[in-house]
Amino acid sequence: MAINQKKAGVALSYVGEAVKILSGLLYTPILIRLLGQNEYGLYQLAYSVMSYLSLLSFGFGSSYVRFHARYLVKNDRDGIAKLNGMFMLVFGLLAGLCLLCGGVLVSNIEMIFGTGLTSSELEKAKILLIIMVVSVAINMPNSVYNCYITAHERFVFQKLLRVLQNVLNPMLALPLMLLGYDSVAVILVSAILTFAVFFSNLFYCNKALSIEFSYRGLKFSLLKEMWVFTFFIFLNQIIDQINWNIDKVLLGRYSGTVAVAIYGIGAHINTIYVQTSTAISNVFVPSINRSVAENKDERLIDLMTKVGRIQFFVLGLILSGFIFYGKPFIRFWAGEGYEESYIVALILIISITIPMIQSIGVEVQRAKNKHYVSSIIYFFIAVLNIVLSIWLIKRYGCTGAALGTAVSLVMGNVVFMNFYYHKYVGLNMFKFWIGIIRAIPSFVVPCIFSYLYTRFISIDSFINLVVAVLCYTIVYAVSIWLFGFNVEEKQIFSNGLSKLRKKR
């Protein structure tokens, strides 16, 4: 049962990622056209502000499974019930704190956004924020049920619920927008689905898993141990929020909703780019932990290089393709008025490429318990991102915001991390980069092809863009096979194709 749950859970995780990416690609352009640039910018801005309230969970959810396992091994049902009770109390208090902080945000919205928003936009922003505050607050106690399901490895229910949420969100919101409703309806649909997920988890935990809560004899001394464990996870959450959401907030304050909308499109493309990479690396976490336990650093750098090369080939297709075909794609996908989104997206995806192909290194750090130093360094660089972005936004607008984030990412995730991996984590980064550099010549032919194609053939329709991208993908695949893949990579690819043929 557990094995089937894991296999199905992995499959549904990939389905969920695919649905999320496709939903973003198909739903976003419709959202932009139905809401309009200003309204879409306001919608993006409200989401960015609310994402900071989710930090009030302080990363406690990540520690539940660890402590639940302690009691499960001893078959201590009373201990699990007390753990559930303590977590429910903690998250109940955090929900109250969320409502309090949300109320302060709504009351001081004029001070937060200054003159960046008009009076009517400020009024609508208040409504959006109120709905989102309630949604985030209800999600706090839901964390207990969600973590309990994870601890019991009921991945099918959990992942399927997430897939349904991602599918239903646009399906319910689109009819309302077609009827003339604005961003308030879109946010309201999202909030209703959050409530639906909460009650689904509550019902499942009570009926299928017989969850129990006990509020007597609670061991609050555990909170100190939990805080030590979750602090650096919480710090990483802060860093992620600063790096990926602060630009929209700053643009809303200094440039207005149109700038937020333009930046939001570029940031959305970057999100899809990141999701494509992380879907590859996540499956190697168990192998990494085994290698660390056996003290096999050579095996770790070999794995990091192998996975890094695969990620490099996948991301290289998207990045190089976007360089040549990104402008017409933005024009047909987002519409007129989003030309600067191409520059924003390009700056962001270039700056994140090296960290993405080195994502195995992050898991190695955690497995070796050496992620504390990098978290602290990342935090100070994230603060630099804020200062730098404010200065650049005032001079270059959306492009300046992207540049501020890019400079910070390069300093922290590229320069510092490569030094840290090599010097303190025990990974031979010279070996890694030799493996990556050997793959670069395979990009020459596709780039020459795309340069000549875009120079002599006009991409003036969506059909022409699709044809160009398909031709480029074929040329890229042939070039990678001939000049990029090594013998082992060709074998892996050939084995994958043969398995697909057998299934058919």
What does this structure look like?
This protein is mainly α. It folds into 3 domains: 1-219, no CATH class; 243-437, no CATH class; 441-504, no CATH class. Helices cover 85% and strands 0% of the residues. It contains 20 helices and no strands. It has helices at residues 2-35, 37-51, 61-73, 77-107, 109-113, 119-151, 155-178, 183-207, 221-254, 257-281, 285-293, 297-333, 339-357, 359-367, 372-396, 398-425, 429-437, 444-456, 462-484, 487-503. Helix 2 packs across helix 6 (119-151), helix 6 (119-151) packs parallel to helix 8 (183-207) and helix 12 packs parallel to helix 18. The longest helix has 37 residues, at 297-333.
Count the helices. How many?
20
Sequence stretches where pLDDT stays below 50 over 5 or more residues: none
* Main β sheet profile: none
Described by its quaternary structure, the protein is single chain
- Class from secondary-structure proportions: mainly alpha
Number of domains: 3
Question: Termini, distance in Å?
Answer: 26 Å
Roughly what fraction of the amino acids lie in strands? under 5%
Query: How much is the radius of gyration in Å?
Result: 24 Å
Task: Report the strand count.
Answer: 0
- Global morphology: globular
